[in-house]
Amino acid sequence: MKPKSIITELSKGFAMIVSLVCFISCTSGQNNEPVAKTDTSFEKKQINALLDSFNMAAGRADYNTYFNFYTDDAVFTGTDATERWDKKAFMAYAKPYFDKGRAWNFTSLERHIYFDKTGNTAWFDELLNTQMKICRGSGVVVKQGNEWKVAQYILSATVPNDQMNEVIKMKATQEDSIIYKLSGASSVVQNQNEQPDIDAIKASPKQFKILLENNHVRVLQYTLKPGEKDEWHTHPPKSSYVVSGGKLKVYLENGKTILADEKAGTASWMDHVSKHYVENIGNSTVKIILTEIK
Predict the structure, then answer these.
(1) Are residues 145 and 186 in the same domain?
(2) Distance between CA atoms of 209 and 289, rounded to whole angstroms?
(3) Over 70: is that where the pLDDT of 37 sits?
């Protein structure tokens, strides 16, 4: 082949390579075009309309319309610590109230809405005017087709800070047992046959004092000074009344701990409490009257 022919062929080959590189660059650039941003102002209007209609449907006790606003896998959490339902369970709970023509009547006072990057998921929080005074509603909404649906809703009762101590006293009777159950579960409240009882009086005579004992009950005075610990012990079913409050740390046999801020004047009930010991981590002496059932 002549030199001129070689140069010509090389030139053609070079041109083809340049063309190929340009094609790849152009097509790659097309695939990397920025995704169009979601029109959040329009979507916010849609979500506001959804949530307003959602609240109004409950106010009208319109059962089918109200629950149609939820996704099939939605979760509702109420103001009570035991209230967490999937959609089916929540529908069963709510139906008797809707059937009576009076469910709940909430009106939004203030609402905030936020979006993820896709624009198909949003979350919100709002202050509500309710029969329970001001509550807070919060949750997650997702876009399904052209509609927004509620995937999660959480209703919370608000408590003024200067009223919190009184509210704690009212809650303690019901919620202490829930705290123990969820924190220690099988190790705190469990079958008494799984382990031998350890009498608190014998284990920690410095902290426990018998005030009354008969065939029905044993009444104990429990005193724990700051920095002091009692010994491993158990309790039969009992009521407790806090005479002097303070901060306690309860150590469970399974290695977990529970922090308890005992408030003076608080009464509570607990079933059988298995092996544990307590440390006073506060600055005040805690005194509690325990009434154990025989």
Answers:
(1) no
(2) 10
(3) no
Let me know: does 278 contact 287? Beta carbons within 8 Å. no
- Report the pLDDT averaged over residues 284-289: 98
Taking residues 250-257, what's their average pLDDT? 90
Q: Tell me the C-alpha distance between 24 and 46, whole Å.
A: 41
> What is the count of structural domains for the chain?
2
Buried b (16+ CB within 10 A) or exposed e, 228-254: eebeebbbbebbbebbebbbbebbbbe
Q: Which domain holds residue 100?
A: 40-157
Residues 168 and 135 in one domain: no
> What is the mean predicted confidence (pLDDT) over 194-208?
91
Contacts of residue 24, defined as CB under 8 A and 6 or more positions apart, other chains included, come to none
What distance in Å separates the CA atoms of residue 58 and residue 52, rounded to the nearest whole number?
Answer: 10
Q: Domain holding 151: CATH number?
A: 3.10.450.50
Q: Please tell me the distance from the alpha carbon of residue 249 to that of residue 60, in angstroms, as a whole number.
A: 48
Q: Are residues 135 and 153 in the same domain?
A: yes
Q: Measure the CA–CA gap between 114 and 57, rounded to whole angstroms.
A: 24
- Read off the CATH number of the domain in which 279 is found: 2.60.120.10
53 CB burial (10 A radius; 0-12, 13-18, 19+): middle
Boundary-marking domain end, from 130, 157, 184: 157
Are residues 105 and 166 both part of a single domain? no
Distance CA 164, CA 267 (A): 16
Q: Between 229 and 37, name the one with better pLDDT.
A: 229
